[in-house]
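Ex. 9. Protein: LysR substrate-binding domain-containing protein.
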Amino acid sequence: MHIPGSDLDMRLVGYFTVVAEHANFSRAATALHVAQPSLSRQIQRLEEHLGVRLFDRTPQGSRLTAAGRAFLPQAVALLQAAHQAELAARDGATPREFTIGYVEDLVITHAVRRLRHQHPTARVRTRHLEWNDAHALTDRRVDALVARAPLPFPADRLRLTELWTEPRVLVVSTDHRLAGMESVTVEDLGEEALPQCPSAVPEWSDFARLEPRPDGVPARSAPIDYESFEDKLDLVAEERTVLILAAGDRRPQLRPGLTTVPIEGIDPVRVVLATRPAEAHPLVDDFVDAWRPGL
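Predicted structure tokens for LysR substrate-binding domain-containing protein:
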């Protein structure tokens, strides 16, 4: 049984729409990265298949014939339908839900929007989590987690994919002795007290407190009389402690009386995507690609 239009080459249809857009074979060939004689032959093949002439060549370029003008909107619709059919086929082979967790002040909107555009039939959801939610992945409440590394809980059974890095800054009161400096080093911190979190893994605690120090002297610990990040900011404002955060963390900037100072000579913070390696979700790779600039 012959299906009308079933032997229409969609590649040729795509070439036709580009030539129609540029109204010039030379410019269209440049846009398509093909040789102009080759493009002319492809359009001729399409005209022979349809049995009509689609373009009239003029000294100024190429002009659509009446048949070409009638074919153009249908050609665009064909290409769009083919693209949607391709997306539907891919999404039909993947789970229809993908839940992305994120913590603290991290913003994932742009990458999520790209992923939803790429997979319009999939249900892509987001969920804001507590910074130390160790079971969100293992309990399958999320399929992926965007967080800053090192994670405050064991991550040996997770796959971590780096998305970007951020330098670190010192958060102090605007009245602090180090406020207003262009930058500081570990040595400048001297006897400054830093908060600690007994429930976090040692790797996280050491990273947050810049330990071990070059002189081997452990950092002083601030009193553990806080329950939230906002409580820590209160301690900083009172000059009872200082904080070391990623430069991309905007929360201290929203509070009056605090300022940040770049810290030189230390490793940056890695923002990572954590996933379950044993059962990687089919949309994970596309979500990682969505962070690439220029897409």
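Check your answer against this statement. The CA atoms of residues 43 and 217 lie 75 Å apart.
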